[in-house]
Each structure stands twice: as structure tokens, then as C-alpha cells.
Amino acid sequence: MAEMSYISVIERYHEYREAIRELLASLVTGVGDKRLCADDAALADAITSISEHYPFVDHIYLLDNNGKQISPIINKEGKPVSGKHHEGTDRSQRPYFKKAKKHGYDVTVSKPYFSNIGRNLCVSAVAICGDAEKIYLVVDIDLRKIIEFLMGDTLRGRFNPLFKAVYSLIAIGLFSIVGVLLFSAYSEIISMFSGVHDGDDFYLKPFHVIIFLTLALAVFDLGKTTIEEEVLMHKDIFRHSSTRRTITRFIAAILIAVSIEALLLMFKSALGDGQNIIAAVWMMFSAVGLLVGLGIYVYLGARAEVHLKSMYDMAQNQKGD
After folding, report:
1. Domain boundary residue, one of 150, 166, 200
2. Does position 304 have pLDDT exceeding 90, yes or no?
3. Is residue 69 a contact partner of residue 83, using CB atoms and an 8 Å limit?
4. For the residues of 94-154, what is the DSSP string, one character each?
5. Predicted model pTM
6. What is the average pLDDT across 136-165?
7. Do 166 and 120 reside in the same domain of the chain?
8. Residue 78 belongs to some domain of the structure
């Protein structure tokens, strides 16, 4: 499945904002040694050591009291970032520096913004690491990765390429079946106009074509849903709505196929093949039961999600008070 979209990242940030702030405050406080202020090698050692345990740390660098960059920007591999982000760059107008100046010696965490270096959504944690000279230590954090870290979702993310490959192979197999069904349907259509048939056989052939096309439609919709839900789109497994959406789409595809097959059996029975009427009725009852069950599931799932959200909002309000 795809990575979290920017909207999902921002939504999760608002949910975990306090946890992110507390984690980064403890992290920056622990790493903010005075020796980092005068030694670029110490900066490189610090970030490589941190990133081994906290993979969401992206960059580290120093600013003076006027917001001028006084060290290279060091990435998580311990190497300076090349390009325009060199020493002497004026960062005094950056929101994270203004917030740090305002709060003095407290560790501050910025609001999410797009990083010019990593081209991703990030937050910056800032703390003073030199008491006398007021040198600011800045640590850039990949917002998506820290959210995954807090949610315990980091390990699953490593298996995403494997999951995508397996789902893609399954979808390719389903699309191959669709090709076979379409070939069978059009072969039946061609045989209707090219061969000689008795009356009963000729009237039943259109139903065979419809059966092949209906199955092709259902299988194609199943493969399309698999590709969209598991490969192309991000599915947040921690949200009930994501699971409910996936189940609804799968059941809907099955429901359409069962309903059409039941109608076809009824039409065939009306043309004289009465032995299938009982099976058609039971199949239609099955479709109705499936639809009712799906409706109950969607309704109860939505109610449960609203209840959980209200409980979460209540807990957040109590925490704020």
C-alpha cells in the first residue's frame, strides 16, 4: 500500500501533537551537549547515533543568536548536505527560529512545513546548546516517519514493497482471467452469427454471453479494487473507516455479480428452463441478505467510529483543561 498522503500526515500530526512534542523535547535535550557547538564532527557523530534508534531524524545543524547558520547541515548518514544550504545562510525569518527566540531556553517544536532539503513534510526541534553564546541546535524531523514510529508502524512499512508486489501479481492474475472470460464471451457472439443453431440453443446463447461478461465485470472490479486499495492508495489500518471502505468495495463487487446471475437464472426459467427457478430465488435471497448485512455493518461501523472520535475529543479537552 502507498505511503500516507499529506492530508493523512497532517491529521495524524494533530492527533499526536503532544506526544511528538514530548518525544522531540526529550531527544533534543539529551543530545544538546555544549561540545556540539564547536565541533562539526561531533554533530555528525550525534546524528548518526540518534538515527540508529530514531529513524525519523533527518538533519542537524547550528544557528547563532541572529539566525545565521554556523555549521554545515548534517544528514542522517553524518555527511554535509551539498547545494545552497551552506554556512552563513540567514534563517532568522524561519518560524522555528522565531519561536525558539521567543521561548528562550525551552525546547521548541515548529509546526509542520515543507523542507527545502528533503522535500517532505517535517517539523524542527530547536534548543539552546551554548549558554553563553546562545547557539541554537536545530534537528529536522521527517513528520511521516515520526508518526509511523509513534504508531508502531515502522516495521510494517519495510514490508510494503513485498506486499505491493504480491498484490500486483494477484491483480495481474485476475486481469488474465478477465481476458479469458472476454475471449469466451466474444467467441460465443461470433458463433451466434457464423454457425447454424436450433431455436432453443440460439435463444440460450445470449445468456451464456451475459454470464461470461458479468463474471468478467465482477473479476475486473475485484482486481481493480485490489490495485487501488493495496497498491495505489494509502490504507490507514489504524482507522476503522479504511477497513470498512475496503470490505464495502469487495462485498459490493460480489453483490453485483450474484444479483446479475440470479436475474439471468430467472430469465432462463421464464424461457422454459424451469428447473433453475428455485436456485434463482435462493440466489436472489442471498443477494438481499448480503446487502442487508453490508448495510448493518456500514451503519454500526460508522456509529462506532463517531463514538470513538467523540471519546478522543473529550479526552483531549480534559487534558487541555
Report:
1. 150
2. no
3. no
4. SHHHHHHHHHTTS-EEPPPEE-TTTSSEEEEEEEEEETTTTEEEEEEEEHHHHHHHHTT-H
5. 0.65
6. 82
7. no
8. yes
